[in-house]
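hi! just following up on the protien thing from before. the input was this:
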Amino acid sequence: MFLPHMNHLSLEQAFFSQVLPKAVKLFDDMIYELTSEARELSSQNLEIQATLRNILQTMVQVVGTLAGCVQHVCATQEPIVLENIHSLPSSVLHVIKSTFVHCKNSESVYSGHLHVVSDLLQALFKEAYSLQKQLMELLDMVSVDPLGDESGSVSHMVMVIHSMLEICSVISSMDHAFHANTWKFIIKQSLKHQLAIKSQLKHKDIITNLCADILFAFQSCLQLAEQMALSDAQDNADYRLFQKTLKLCRFFANSLLHYTKEFLPFLSDSCCTLHQLYLQIHSKFPPSLYAARVSEVQQEEIEGAFLLTLDPLISHLLAFQPFVHVVLDNKLELPCELQFPQCLLLVVIMDKLPSQPEDVQSLWCTESQASDAPARASLFKAIFDSFEQCSGELALPVHLQAVKSEGQAQAAVSLYQHVCVHLCTFITSFHPSLFPELDAALLGAVLRANMITSLLAMDAWCFLARYGTAELCAHHVTIVAHLIKSCPGECYQLTNLSVLLRRLFFFMAPPQQVEFIQKFPPKEAENLPLWQCISFQALPAELRRGAAGEVSRVGAAQCGRWLSSGRSLRELDALNTVLPALLAVCHSAGDALDIEPQAAVVEAASQLWASLSPDPVVSQPCVQWTLSLLLPLLGFFIQTLEPQLISQVVTLQASLLTLEPPDHVRLAMLDFVSSVGKLSISQDIQVPF
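and the predicted 3d structure came back as:
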């Protein structure tokens, strides 16, 4: 070869740019001829066999010649500028890619007669493999002008990286080690020439391909782990392959971390891919319901070598607004298998946010309705939304590792406990300016129809009441009280708010309880819907006695007012808001009632009972509700009732049972019967059934 006799600065103009394009065309023509002639290949057609082998031998020689060119440039002792040899990398990469594509498709190209040319194909692959290694060594030595692209060296380096990316997609299933080395070169060169090429790289293609390779390697790792779990005998070969694949996963994860960290401003359109990668990985790994069956030993190995390596990826993306929009998108629609990983991701983000500055926390925790961007939910709302979709994981339940406490063994907890604990922890550490967003999300979740989601919000709210100041707790109780009073009628929202008020009231300090009584005095009938929600046990003894007495007196008075009026069914709804308050007094403050209010309640209940008859109970829902409230109220005072009244109640119940009343009436009957016990009634006042 005459290359040594030429100055390396004149190689491009005098030789590479003139000869290499022709060599590439020759190589492409040979690939085309191979593909065309191979259709006629048979074991009897010796002429075709000879033609194909001759072409392949020529191709091996072409690749070897290109290797000689690369070696000659590598041997140069002076600095190498890419612009001075730019035709060489582009030509070599084209030939390498064409070679690998042909080898990859060889089974279909040679249609069952691969054995005829397999030795030459193997030689061709080895030559191309060696050529690429030499080219990567050469490109490690070249320099690129970081200040501009007037010479074209920047665009040439970008072309090299993109061509290597295409080669990666070809060889991914052919040679794992070579595939990894090619990726290593791509990441290394991208970082090395970052300043010069960052705005011209196809970042989305690089991230997409890297994520696809990570997912493929991870799935392969899980398949091997599953095979070992199903196999009785431990196969050392399988385990070595498992460790090798796991090492590949870790390499890819580290590559992704380095790339995203350095090129984050250019990854706006890759955030969806990164988000999906996280979800897909965790959907295939325990404790997901869709996970492979992996032994505990292999599970720990995968967690330690791969998942922990990938974990910093979320930290890199926390302050990146496009990623926030993707994760919290209001229109995000995920399949069932990705709902649980989404919930876990949101919890991970929530755990990481306290260490972030206020603006990053605000970015995640506030809703966005800007016209120039997709609407996004707050992190709080997104957690409740995602949690609500995990019905299968909540029902089984799925178990996760709890936060490890000092001196205690790490235990498994349900998804409910996992989310609740992390949410409460976040409440203690996030920026105070975001409390309005938290309040709005908690209230929205409490008002949901989904019971388990509402309960989660209540638990978090109660934690906030205990953790915060007495004034904050009182403020929340007042808000909930006003909401209850504003409810138009019976609904699940009213039920949820009632439960929340009952729980929050226990956390109020006595001075704030006094203020609550002053704001919502129990002696006013309009406040009875509130007092039916409250356990009087939450009040100190003196306050309990006073509030219970006032509720009893005003309740008895309301009953008397209805009895003395026309007793119309339209006014019975108002009475049905009084009886639950009287029941609340009986259940939680019966021992605190003085004789006078107790007698007033018994008298009112007795008179109400006397006004009832079986027919309207069956036909009128409001009468049914009155009866279902009145029966447990009478049962509470069973020891003070007249025997004749008890006999009448039992008789009416027997009559009602023949008319098949609704279930809640039947349950109220059982409640009354259970309170009667072994009470004796004289024969002369018993009414025969």
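DSSP finds 33 helices and four strands in the chain.
The two ends are 121 Å apart (CA to CA).
cheers
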